[in-house]
Each structure stands twice: as C-alpha cells, then as structure tokens.
Design brief:
The complex is a heterodimer of chains A (110) and B (115). Chain A is mostly beta strands and 110 residues long. In chain B, strand 4 and strand 5 form a beta hairpin. Chain B is globular. Classes of the chains: A mainly beta (110), B mainly beta (115).
Chain lengths: 110, 115
C-alpha cells in the first residue's frame, strides 16, 4: 500500500462547479497535511495546509481532514479553467520528511 | 524576487558527465530540501538540511549524488557520472523551522535531460 493514495484522474468538472479531490494515507502518525497545485511543467505551489480534524477554508478552497478515517480532501468552489492542474496531496509525520502522492489531474471545462 | 531560486532551469548533458545544480532558499528559511520528480509522479524526497547540517539522505540517493549547504545558505546538488535514469525535474524547497510548521515552498526546479 502506498503511503499517500490519490486517484490519478483526470477529474473533469464544468466551470462554476465544485471540484472534490480526495487523498488517503496509511501512517496513523501523520500530523500535517498539505495540498499543492502543480501546473504542467511548473513546480508545486502550496495552496492549503491543515493540522487538525475538521474543515479549513481559504477563499474558494476548503481542506477537510478526518484522521480517524485517514482521509484528507480538497474542495474547490466555483471552479475556473485556471484551476486546471495537478493537485498533490502531501503529509508529514512529525519529522522533516514530507511524503507526496502522485497527484490528481483536474480539468475544468469552460 | 524573494522566493526560492534554482539555477540552471534546464540542463542537457551526456551520459557519464557530472552536473551541479544550485538552490537559493527564501532568506529566513533554515530548512532546505531536495526532491526529484518524474512524469506522473509526486516529488520524491532526496535529502534535507537544517542550517548547514545534512540530517537525512534518502536510500534512493546513490553514491553518485552529493549535496552541500555551506554556511547554511545556498545549497548545491551534484550528480556524478550521470545516467539516463537521472533525467528528471530536480526541485528544491525551503521552510522555516518552527514548532508544528512544515510548510515547504518550492523553487522553479531544474529539468535535467541525460542523453
């Protein structure tokens, strides 16, 4: 089992819809969780981080964490074509090492 | 620009040659990371520095790879005797060491092509 699992996609949503991206992880000791956005040919850009169970909102983005279910998700409201990218889920188990998933490709249709 | 910078942005080299990449982290960040990313995969951890000390090196990193961070500022990653399998994007990231703070910020990356 991979340490961080993401559906590779592509996930296709119409413009203005809610995009829901999901991530599961295997290490129950994981403490910090991150979502990065990566455009094709570019480096990852940090868009959200969450440390506690529940929801965290920042603009159109909401991160949701459920440590009991070992599940973290990212919701993007009012999706725009410019949101089309690969979204990487990442986690940290309390040390220096951050582990990344392979990413989910999101395509927002205009 | 106060973000993480990397140089060069692209490098094409022939198999067997040595290459060196440079990373300049965000100035107040004392943690520096190197990752490698291949197509369709997430970044893969290579090594980590806190200030000038290299605290961890991935098992994935062969003896051909070496990294330094003299004076705890910029860092270099050297690959000796490059192989075609070394072709990838090499990413540098930095973060500020604080309690419960592990957010990392990436540079633009160096894309290496070994022919």
């Amino acid at each position: 089992q991979k340490e961080v699992e993401q559906n590779s996609g592509p996930l296709s949503v119409p413009e203005g819809a809610i995009a829901s991206l999901n991530c599961t992880y295997s290490d129950r000791g994981s403490q910090s969780f991150f979502w990065y956005r990566q455009y094709s040919g570019k480096s990852p850009e940090l868009i959200m981080f969450i440390y506690s169970n529940g929801d965290k909102e920042d603009g159109r983005f909401t991160a949701q964490l459920n440590k009991a279910s070992q599940y973290v998700s990212l919701l993007i409201r009012d999706s725009q074509p410019s949101d089309s990218a690969t979204y990487l889920c990442a986690l940290n188990t309390g040390g220096f090492k951050t582990i990344f998933g392979a990413g989910t490709r999101l395509f927002v249709k205009a | 620009d106060t973000g993480v910078s990397q140089d060069p942005r692209h490098k094409i080299t022939k198999r067997g040659q040595n290459v060196t990449f440079r990373c300049d982290p965000i100035s107040e960040h004392n943690r520096l990371y190197w990752y490698r990313q291949t197509l369709g995969q997430g970044p893969e951890f290579l090594t980590y520095f806190q200030n000038e000390a290299q605290l961890e090196k991935s098992r994935l990193l062969s003896d051909r790879f070496s990294a330094e961070r003299p004076k705890g500022s910029f860092s270099t990653l050297e690959i000796q005797r490059t192989e075609q399998g070394d072709s990838a994007m090499y990413l540098c990231a930095s973060s500020f060491a604080a309690v419960s703070s592990y957010e990392q910020y990436f540079g633009p990356g160096t894309r290496l092509t070994v022919t």
